Amino acid sequence: MIKLFRNIRKNLLNEGKTSKYFKYAIGEIALVVIGILIALQINNWNEKRKGKQLEYNFFSNILLDLEKDEQKLNYYIKFHTKRIEYLDTLLTYVRNPNKIMGIDKFGMYVEPLFYSEIPTNYSTTFESAKTLGTFNNFKSKDLLKDLSQYYADFSIIEYIINSILRFVENQFEPLMYTLPENYMTLQTGSLVVNEEDVSEFYKKIASIDDFRNITADYEKILKTPSFENYLIGDMGRTYNALGKIKSRQETLIKIKLKIETND
Prior knowledge:
About 75% of the residues lie in helices and about 0% in strands. By secondary structure, it is mostly helical. The longest helix is centred in the N-terminal third of the chain and has 77 residues, at about 20-95.
């Protein structure tokens, strides 16, 4: 094409058609400019298309992360709801000394209290994009703001779940270690809420015979004021955790709906 334009210009000059040559040159320049503008427009269109696809992929992956987060929150709700139920049962026996609990039932209800949860947050997609500056040119600024706040607020969940863990380690475990644990049987872990199967642990403990003839005086634990204090403190922390978890769950559902209806 360039060779053709050169030949036309050369012929016009050789023929002494200077005015036509200048007109042609101006036309050629105009064509080049138009070609450049078209190329720029195509390039801009491609960049917008790539940007739109990148944004689509980002939010698609965010939805996958939120799905995992929602499953984890559902589990946390189940875990803490059950914990409150067990604390309530134990507190009922503490405050009703005429009710006989029995060592087996005592073991079944105190054992789940040894367990706590590790707070988990699925934010890989968001944090990676944030680090790389991927969503700087995204159009959905309000959604990004909501996501940023959602992930930042995880520190609240993290703090309160960890506070329950510290409470268990610092108060519940030292109190329970004053009681021989030979009350543990195959049924002791039946009420435990845990993501991993714990049955093998209790099966192993139950398989080891105890020939010491020691009786676990669980009633002494029930009558200990510090045990009542622990139950109430744990219940308060668990209710607090449950409220925060449910609030986060509601926020998650709203964000998911915004993403799914986002154009």
